[in-house]
Amino acid sequence: MRVAYQYRLRPTKQQAQEIDRWLSMLCAQYNYLLADRFDWYERNRCPINACPLICHLPELRDNPDYFSQKKTLPQLKVTHPWYAEMYSQVLQDVVKRVKVTFDRFLKGDGNGKRSGKPRFKQRSRYRTFTYPQMKEGCLQGNLINLPMFGKVKVIMHRLLPDDFKIKTVSVTKKADGYYVTLSLEDKAVPEIKLDINPDLITGIDVGLKDFLTTSDGEVVPIPQHYRKAQKRLRVVQKRVSRRKKGSSRRLKAVRCLGKQHKRVADKRKDFHFKVARKLLSTYDVIAHEDLNVKGLARTKLAKSILDAGWSNFLSILTNKAENAGLLVIAVNPSGTSQDCSNCGVKVPKKLHERWHSCACGCELDRDLNAALNIRKRAEGHPVLKAQLMSEAIAGVTEKLPPNLRFGA
Hints:
Elements: E1 2-10, H1 13-44, H2 66-70, H3 73-79, H4 88-106, E2 128-131, E3 139-140, E4 143-146, E5 150-155, E6 165-174, E7 177-185, E8 201-206, E9 210-214, E10 219-221, H5 225-242, H6 248-282, E11 285-289, H7 293-296, H8 302-308, H9 310-324, E12 327-331, E13 355-357, E14 363-365, H10 366-379, H11 382-399
Parallel strand pairs: 8-11, 11-12
Antiparallel strand pairs: 1-5, 1-7, 2-6, 3-4, 4-5, 6-7, 8-9, 9-10, 13-14
Helix pairs in contact: 1-4, 5-6, 6-9
């Protein structure tokens, strides 16, 4: 199991300049390798479906794959001696990033979904470099020893677990400073909780009126961090637009704008972690709708949906539940708001209608009705159904006499 711990770095002025220099060099190398891939792609592809009997065939190139591009790095250090001051594995990681990006463009990811055409990176958009391997003892107290860079001060706001091993280290430049991300490996695989209490199963319905509503009737209000910060963001954005492009004053205003946006993102992330912790400390099984958030973010409600951050919250909830040995189940979202949670009859409602009223006498809030439907669908989920059935069989077996038990 892999987990990531992020800490803030406190580099000296000279170290901060060195980090910026490394990022600039890596950005140039990334763009060069990507251009090499594009050159191969344009030379070897045919823009038409058929060719005449007599035509000119251009000279084809060999595919610049991961290994062939990695072999060019020693020559790079000869032609450009300043790259020799950089750790070799950091340069190799750039080759890997180009490979992953281009493969997603040509072949797609594991699900076969292709990404758009890769773009060249601006210097301001290349913010991270990675050490793929780290030796034991690289972190000593509040100092981290980065190969061919030196020791950098780290703000250790929480201690690392003793049984975890540092696998990779990434240094990132953000709007408010520099951060280091430690990827830790824990060989102990968390086991799913076996004694699931049927009373500790809940369904949650995420929304825009309230952030979420549980099937027990608990409501978490939506904070709307971005909308509350819009007034301040508007002032800073106007300040950026008034500055002359390329000037130092515009660069200073852009940094100020980046800090404001990061503050909003940090508040949202902190809220998501606190809500996820509260749910996982209360319930054993949490069910939610398997939403197409990207599709919903293309509607008129895009700003509110992105401000709520449903996708990030569900990702945090799933990861934390896996580490705790709990279950998070995604159910089919079709009809959860329209179906009656009491009798199952479909009661059509428009989006502005927030009250569910059925002919069977069931009257309750629309979001609570959806949360109850989500909980019922989770109870029929194969994973949970098999879990509860095994517990029921174990309970019946214990009540049988010893001579009638299985394997006796």
